[in-house]
Structure formats: structure tokens, C-alpha cells
Amino acid sequence: MAESGTANIQHQYTRKRLEFGRPPPITSEPNGRPWVTARKVQDDTWKMFQDRSGAAEMLEDLFPDEEATTQDYITRNPCLGKVQCGPVASKGGSNTARFVLENRQMAHTEGGWPEGLDCTDTEQTARFRKRVEKEEEYVNAVKTMATTVEHCLKQNNAVDIYEEYFAGTKVEHSTEPPSARNLTVFKDPQKIKRTTTRISWNPDGGKKLACAYSSLQFQQAPEGMSSNSYIWDLNNPNFPELTLVPPSPLVALEYSNRDPNILMGGSYNGLLVFWDLRSGSSPSRMTSIEKSHKDPVYEITWIQSKHHECMSTSTDGQILWWDTRKMNEPTDIYTLDTSNKPDTVMGIQGGTSLGYDVAAGPLKFLVGTEQGYILACDKKSKNPHDRIQNVFAGHHGPIYSLQRHPAFAAKYFLSIGDWTCKVWMQDIKTPIMSTKYEMCYLTDGCWSPTRAGVFFTTKMNGVFDVWDFLYKQNEPTLSIPVGETGLHCMRIEKDQGKLIAFGSLDGSTTLYEISDALCGAQPNEKQTCLLYTSDAADEEDSVDLGGRRIIKKKQK
Q1: Residue 303's closest CA among 254, 343, 352?
Q2: Bond into 330 cis (ω within 30)
Q3: 281: which DSSP letter?
Q4: Cβ–Cβ under 8 Å, residues 412 and 406
Q5: Which residues are registered as beta bridge partners of 320?
Q6: Are the C-beta atoms of residues 33 and 46 closer than 8 Å to each other?
Q7: Residues of the chain with pLDDT under 70
Q8: Using CA atoms, how far apart are residues 370 and 345, in angstroms rounded to an integer?
Q9: pTM to 2 decimals?
Q10: 180-186 and 250-255 strand pairing
Q11: Closest of 222, 207, 218 to residue 255, by C-alpha
Q12: What is the pLDDT of residue 508?
């Protein structure tokens, strides 16, 4: 034994090199205990390389020295210990740096003239040019450059780099599967997030879009919430290009159809605000509180006129017409009173959406109401009671969107309300088509500007649906979850019909690009669509896109 508290056990033995790496020696006793004790070595009662299935054998028991323990240590009470049995893992994340764009400009003025020469004086510059053209250096320089220019001209004559080799070729996209991809997201820069209530595309090529932000919960707007809205450039989603500063949060916002610098906004307090973007962020003109709506302005539509004129609707039950040159008061006022119309709710209807297309008539328009009715109106009627020419009852709640068909504006229109989307014919009071009842509310929808049989819908659960009723009627052709939060509005770019912007409840605006199969015009699609819908109307049937066919009598 060594010092107190330690044991020194030693044993030396020798073996051949070929035995290195073999298992340790095993006892030959019947109990099969492994390993070797000092006593067994002395008694020579063990053998090497035998059975290894036995349990381990204890060599020595060493107990602590109680006297040394009491002097050097104190008993810890209570004694707690922790053991981590699970694997230790680390979590990390990384993101690429955003590419930040910055707009800069440069003003180029004529220069290179010698000192003392006034470049604004035509006579002085003409005399200077004549003198330089006679110099030998100028002549040599022109001869040298002329060789290079002549070579380039000969190349252009030999090969037309602008020639379109496949001009007029029709591309068939019918076999391509429908798809859509996310391009970018425009996020509300404010700390207090608001709902994206309206999106409007710039008419000049669709390179910019204006977004209105507001909180539509009655008297529940958070304290300190900003009223600003923004204009975004598609090439720079990190920062808004321009900030619109209205007196109250905007619910509606629309670009003028003819001028990309003109904007009209409808605010939460009922005011209409006019912007000329060449003048900056502040409104150029706005309506007076006495002559404006009494409720939030839910939609604004530009109408055909010589000047910039529009109409607006609100849940206060009024349609107001405005001339942007004089916004002190509306040019015309109409109250949505359906007291003289049978089979409708008596009283004034609150307007929530507008449907206007000059192809259906410059003075004809549709109004979607808070009570679920669609009012077909004509402004040219002299008697105000005769302006409502037809009433369509088809939804169980507010109508969030109305749009006439871009190819058959005078005949068909689309409505979004409650849990369904419905397609109507102007002369029939029952819908000729309707989607199946969804599990959540539908919030917005529109026709495709390039394909006659395609329309789009958005839902409160954040899903975007594409319907192609010439291809599939019982379910959407394509369904894409845009975000975790619900979708409130959408707007499609009208020139090519390829870009779609979605406004969410959390203030983010998501930009998607759909495939060519969903935006490329198909052969004879308009004729097929017209025959399909006309047959449903002639048979007095309602074709349900949910897979059912419901027979309905035509109301006279």
C-alpha cells in the first residue's frame, strides 16, 4: 500500500508479440468471472484467452479515510445534481444582404469650349467650329474615326441585329401546368402595422404600385398609428419611392387611367384627397368635411370625361361625383334608396364596391351594397328614383368586389361576397355561375385581363385561387397560400395580366407572377366562353362551379 487514501497495485507479466491486442486473460473457474486477481496469479489458477461472457470481477475495495475526510471536507446538504440525457444541438441562421437601390440623376450641360468663349452665343460657336474644321489635327482625327465607323456600318448592313426571326409565331401554352412564383414583398415600414386596404397599379407600364394602409376595425385604431400611404417601385422593394401624407388613413386609392401622376384617395373619415405627384407628398386638393361622405370611402372609380372626374361610394348610402378641378363640392349626388324596388330591403343601402367599364356605357355602373345586393344604375335617368334599373340579390353579406368582364363588359360581371364568387348576366337576376361555399370569407376577386375564362379570388385564410371554368369547374385550377395572415385585397396588372399584387392584414403587399398558361390567350377562347355562358343563361340554369347544377327559374 502507498500513502493514506491511495492504493498502488502492480503486476508484471510478459507475453509474445503475436498475443498483443487479444482479449484480457479470463479465469477458468466455473463462475466465469473475468479478469485476474493477485491471489489467482500466485495460486496459478487462471488461463489466458478463454470465455469472455462472464461479468466483471472486482479487484479491490478502497474505502475513504474517515479522519481525513472530516478534516478536509464539509458535508453538503442538500445535494442536487443535473444530468443532460438529450443530445446538445445549436441553432443558427443566416441571410444574404439585401441589394439596396438608390436613384440618382445627373444634369448634362454643353461643355468643352475654350475659356473666354460664350457657348450661348451662336455666332461665336459657329466661328470657332469653322476655324477648328480647317486645322490639320481635326482632319486627321476624322479620317481615323471614319474607318471604324465605316466598318460598323458594313456590319449592320450585313446582319440585322434587330431582326425578329419568330415574329407572328403563336406559342401554345395549353399543355403547360399552371403555376405562380413569388417575386417580392413590400412591407409596411411603420412600427404599428396596418391592413393594406387598396392596391392600384401605375398605368404607365405597371412599374409602380400605390398601396393604401388603414385599420378598418371601428374605433379600435391603436394610439399613434400613422396615416401615411406609399408608392412602391418594383425594382426597389426595400424602401418606398414616395410617401403620401393624407389627413386621415386611406381606405381607397386609385391612379388615373390617363395620367400616371394623378392619384385620388378616399380616407377613413370620408374625405377625398387628390394628389398630383409632381407637386410632392402633400395633397394638392381635398374635399371639405361638410360636402364629403359621412363614413369611410370604400371605393373610387375614374369615369370617362374630358377632364379628370371620378365617383365614390361609402356605407353612408351615397354616390358622389367629383371634378378634380373643383373639389369644394360634388358635381352630383345620388342616394342608394331602394324603397320603391320590390324584393329588396327597404331603405338606404350602404355602398361597399363599384363596378364601372366604359364599354358597358359611359353612364352605367354597378354598386355592391353592405346588405348583399347589387344595384345596376344609369346616371342619365332624369328621375332619381329611376336610376336604379335592376337589383340582384345574391350574397348574404357585404359585397367586397364588383367587376365587369373585360371582353364582354355589357353582358357579364363578377361579384365577391360572403363565402362565394358569382358570375352574373346583365339580363338575369340569378347568377349563371357560382363557386362552392368556402370555409372562410372571400375578400376580393377580379377577371383576368387577357384570358376570357379565368378569374381570381382571395380568401381570409391567406389562400389565392385561380379559376379556369373552361378547364375545370369543380375546384380551382391553382391554389397558392400567399401568407399566414389573411388577404384583404388584390389587383392585377392590366397590360400583360402577368403580375398580381396581394394586400394582407399585416400590412405586407406580396407580388406574384403567374405562368404563361394562365395569362396567354388561348385559341377561340372568347367564343368558347361566350357560348358556355350563353347556354347556361338560355337554359335558365345556374352552373355551380362546386360540381352541382342547380335549376332555377328565370325571374320575369
Answers
A1: 254
A2: no
A3: S
A4: no
A5: 312, 333
A6: no
A7: 1-59, 98-99, 108-111, 168-175, 343-346, 533-556
A8: 11
A9: 0.67
A10: unpaired
A11: 207
A12: 92
User: Quick one: pLDDT at residue 292?
Assistant: 92
Q: Residue 552: what pLDDT?
A: 42
* 112-137 pLDDT per residue, tens: 778 878 877 888 888 888 888 888 88
Helix (H) or strand (E) holding 201: strand 195-201
- Residue 147 backbone dihedrals phi, psi, to 5 degrees: -65, -45
Q: Are the C-beta atoms of residues 298 and 197 closer than 8 Å to each other?
A: no
Provide the 3-class DSSP secondary structure of residue 277. Answer: helix
Task: Quote the CA–CA distance of 58 and 40 in Å, as a whole number.
Answer: 13
Cell of 386: 329611376
Beta strand pairing call for 478-481 and 318-323: unpaired
3-class DSSP state of 417: strand
Please give the DSSP secondary-structure letter assigned to residue 523.
Answer: T
Rg of the chain on CA atoms, in Å: 40
Q: Can you tell me which residue has the cell 396588372? A: 493
CA dist., res. 327 & res. 265, Å (int): 13
Q: What are phi and psi of 148, to 5 degrees?
A: -65, -45
Question: Taking a C-beta distance cutoff of 8 angstroms, is the pair 366, 375 a contact?
Answer: yes
For residue range 371-405, list pLDDT tens digits in order: 889 888 888 877 777 788 888 888 888 999 999 98
What is the layout of strands, in order, in the sheet containing 499-504?
180-186, 509-514, 499-504, 487-492
**Neighbour tally for 57: CB within 10 Å:** 16
How many Å apart are CA 266 and CA 450, to the nearest integer?
Answer: 29
Q: Which of 480, 474, 483 is nearest to 456 (CA)?
A: 480
User: Which DSSP symbol is given to 84?
Assistant: -
- Of 463, 441, 465, nearest to 455 by C-alpha is 465
Look at residues 239, 214, 217, 212 and name the one whose alpha carbon lies nearest to residue 225. 214
At position 34, the amino acid (one-letter code) is: P
Q: How far apart are CA 469 and CA 421, in angstroms?
A: 13
Please name the residue that has the C-alpha cell 474607318.
147
In the block, cell 449592320 appears at: 156
- For residues 132 and 138, give the distance between their C-alpha atoms in angstroms, rounded to a whole number: 7
- Contacts of residue 287, Cβ cutoff 8 Å, sequence gap at least 6: 271, 272, 273, 322, 327, 328, 329, 330
- E-assigned strand segments in 379-419: 388-393, 399-404, 412-417
Q: Please choose, from the candidates 483, 501, 480, 504, the residue with its C-alpha nearest in 3D space to the C-alpha of residue 492.
A: 501
Which residue is listed with cell 470465455?
Answer: 51
The one-letter code for the residue type at 187 is K
How far apart CA 326 and CA 285 sit, in angstroms, is: 9
pLDDT recorded at residue 244: 93
Task: Give yes or no for a contact between 451 and 525, defined as CB atoms under 8 angstroms apart.
Answer: yes
Quickly count: other Cβ atoms within 10 Å of residue 6's Cβ: 8
The pLDDT of residue 553:
40
What HEC string does 10-26 produce?
CCCCCCCHHHCCCCCCE
Please state, in angstroms and as integers, the Cα–Cα distance from residue 554 to each residue in 248, 477, 538, following that order.
46, 30, 9
Cα 3 from Cα 318, distance rounded (Å): 105
Supply 78's cell numbers: 442538500
pLDDT of residue 68: 73
